Structure formats: structure tokens, C-alpha cells
Amino acid sequence: MRIRPIRTADAAALAPLCGQLGYPATQQQVERRLVLLVDRPDQGLLCAESDDGSLVGWLHVQTRRVLESDPFAEICGLVVDERHRGAGIGRDLVTAAERWAAERGYLSVRVRSNVIRTDTHRFYAHLGYAVMKSQISFAKTLTSAGHS
């Protein structure tokens, strides 16, 4: 197994993993998203590729610059194929994300996790992550994209 950067051509293999994370997506949707993310210096897209070439996990980390705190890196998504969980792949992806952040000069990595994902909370705690706060996430669907 090796960790490598995600390529746009990986969309077909990534889409089912998005579904396992709880965010069903088609290959076309993932392709559209990757076009916006791949090769951007503020986006780290990493996958775990097994010896037979199949993708068994992915992680998305990005840089965050906000007014209220110093810049940091944030893990936005992590999933390991349910058939391969418990083998250290998630840990390897997080380690790769931490290395990605450190190489860019970031001193901290943050991650958010749904309150119902208690196994995920234990996973990150085991890797040395500490709870910063609990919060509620709001969203609003807009009737137009508002792009100019």
C-alpha cells in the first residue's frame, strides 16, 4: 500500500468511497470537484493505493486562513474502504496530511467530525488530537450561485 496524490482520473474509484463516508456522489460529480481542487497549492488530496492498484482510502486536507486565528491546516474528509478498516490506512493518511501541512509551514492540523461518529472521535484521539469545541453546523441553499 502506498499514499499518493489524487488525480482527476481517480474519480471513478473515489465516488464509492464518498458514499461510504456518507456523501453519495457520482463519478461525474467527483470529476467536477477534482477539477477545482487538483494541483492547487492550498489543497492536499491524498489516496491510499493497494498493491493491486485499487484505491482503498482518501484524505482531503486544506490550508485555512481566518481572521480569528493563525493559519492552520484542516482535514476536510477522510475515508477508508470498509473492507480495509483497522489496517492502519487511516493513520497513514493522517500522517501524510500532517507531513503535507508541516512542509508548508503550518504548526497545527484540525479536523471536524460529526457528533455521531464516535469511532472516528476515538481514532483521532488515539492519534493525539484533542477536542477543541463542540458546535452546530448550519447550511442554507441559495436559489442562484451568485457568481459574477
Strand content: 25-35%
Output the radius of gyration. Answer: 16 Å
Counted up, domains total: 1
Counting DSSP E segments of at least 2 residues, the number of strands comes to 5
Helix content: 25-40%
CATH superfamily descriptor: Gcn5-related N-acetyltransferase (GNAT)
Biggest sheet: strands side by side, in what order? 1-2-3-4-5
Kindly provide the name of the CATH class.
Alpha Beta
Low-confidence stretches: none
What is the CATH third-level topology name? Aminopeptidase
The secondary structure category is alpha+beta
Structural description of this entry:
The chain has 148 residues and is of the alpha+beta class. It has a single domain, classed as Gcn5-related N-acetyltransferase (GNAT) (Aminopeptidase). The protein contains four helices and five strands, in the order E-H-H-E-E-E-H-E-H. A five-stranded mixed sheet has the order 1-2-3-4-5. Helix 1 crosses helix 2. The longest helix has 15 residues. The model has no long low-confidence stretch (mean pLDDT 94).
